[in-house]
Amino acid sequence: MANIIDFTNEIEQAKYSSLVKNALSHRTSSSAEIITFGCQQNEADSERIAGLCSLMGFDTNPAGSMSSDEISVAGLIIINTCAIREHAELKALSNTGRLKKLKETNPELILGICGCMVQEKHRFDQIKKSYPYVDFMLGTDSIHKLPEVLWRVISEQRRIYGVSALPHSELGVIEENMPVLRKSPFKVWVPIMYGCNNFCTYCVVPRVRGHERSRSEAAIIEEVKTLLDGGCKEITLLGQNVNSYSGENGGFVKLLENLLSLDGDFRLRFMTSHPKDASDELIELMNHPKMAKHFHLPFQAGSDRILKLMNRRYTKEKYLERALKIRQASPDCAITTDVICGFPGETAEEFEETLEVVRAVEFDTLFSFVFSPRKGTPAANFDDQISHDEKIRRFEKLTKLTNSLSEKRNSLLVGKTERVLCDTEADNEGFSGGKSSQNKLIRFQNPENQIKVGEFADVEITEAFRASLNGKLL
Ligand code: SF4
Question: Across all residues in the chain, what is the average pLDDT?
Fold first, then answer.
């Protein structure tokens, strides 16, 4: 049973929030900057961190980042890290390194690091030892403790660590009724489940985000109702394995049906799905008028031997059957995916099987990554690690193929009408931008901003490119 933290009952944290608020009135700066790396789940967490900062009296601007001048006088900087690949970690560490000078010129600045990277013991130890100017670290299951950690940093004038070293089966809570400062009132993230029990051999998520746990359906529906009443137009349901959601009244399809039955002109998205839970009922539901026509379904590799080594629990044939089922049942639905190039032991022939799947499904967009060994994961110690050059050769070959297919898929939309949620005001050329139901970027002429940010617009597609489309307002 998941440990649910209801922030409205966190009296202690409320006490610490007001203590920090009082302390702020004696400090030179009350501005806070949250720097976010990684996935949508981290974006959603950063909106909760921003909500807590605002509760404590910090000026936080979730919609945009500070200028370098503003950063130089910030009172609080929090780096929300990602551990999915080496590159993301090195970027966060180099960012932290660059802030050392700032701490020297502005000793009142409080610097904290949170997110998946601090949940890894070797990175936690590295930051503790080599970044002595980092004032606190906060684990993925302790965001609600930020007020306490900040008060202790201020009052005890020492470094504070709110990172639990719990095993997978115990790591992870569900934080309900947290203060949230969202980037947009129109397009929002709504996490519905956290953690993962799949243990793909290349992935750190289960170790840094803990066991799979789902929020209650009642809490999710309540949150979505409030958002829709507030004018929200697009809800993205989040989970590392969103389609293995399990609530008090049933699974993911049940939850979607209940959300889709809510009144209002809105659209519903979800990510990220696992092929083993892509049921016929879910695929059928993609045709619901309020369901965004986009299914993100990572397949990672085309060879059954490699899928087994990855512990992905499906075969190439099974994946193709699911993906082509979506194509057949919901022809307007865009399918996107993730692929890893150069998994240990993958032969050139096995990589060709990956390209076969790509040609068969013709993904609208494909996110490709070179294999990055993650410390503590089984695949990091597998024999036959592929050379960097060979990984890049495969990555480039895959990118060339997927780019041509993305353009082909987009060209099928020329002459069609797409419903776009306007994201931006008209630029100097009079163009606004937004995403279609298929999650494709569409630029359209928006004279005198007749379509406001946060409004839907019907746009006839006039031009197609690899990663975007142009159209005219109908
Ligand atoms: S399903 Fe696999 S890749 Fe996805 S988060 Fe879980 S362990 Fe990682």
Answer: 95
Could you tell me if 130 and 255 lie in one domain?
no
For residues 58 and 141, state if they share a domain.
Answer: yes
434 Cα–ligand 1 center, Å: 29
Total domains present in the chain: 3
Does ligand 1 come within 6 angstroms of the Cβ of 241? yes
Q: Whose CA is nearest to atom 1 of ligand 1?
A: 198
Model confidence pTM above 0.70: yes
274 CB within 6 A, ligand 1: yes
Q: Does one domain contain both 142 and 240?
A: no
My answer on whether 274 and 146 are in the same domain is no
Domain identity same for 355 and 422:
no
**Ligand 1 in contact with 198 (CB < 6 A)?**
yes
Q: Quick one: pLDDT at residue 62?
A: 66
Determine whether the shortest distance from the Cβ of 205 to ligand 1 is under 6 A.
Answer: yes
Q: How far, in Å, is the centroid of ligand 1 from the Cα of 195?
A: 9
Residues 204 and 272 occupy one common structural domain = yes
Based on the domain organization, do 150 and 197 belong to the same domain?
A: no
Domain that holds residue 399: 180-411
Asked if residues 265 and 234 have their Cβ atoms less than 8 Å apart, the reply is: no
Q: Which atom of ligand 1 is nearest to the CA of 209?
A: 5
* 175 inside domain: no
The predicted-structure confidence for 28-87, as pLDDT tens digits, reads as follows 899 999 999 999 999 999 999 999 999 999 998 766 666 777 888 899 999 999 999 999
> pLDDT tens-digit profile of 223-238?
999 999 999 999 999 9
Instruction: Name the residue of 168, 200, 339 whose CB sits within 8 Å of the most ligand 1 atoms, as the mutation to test its pocket.
Output: 200
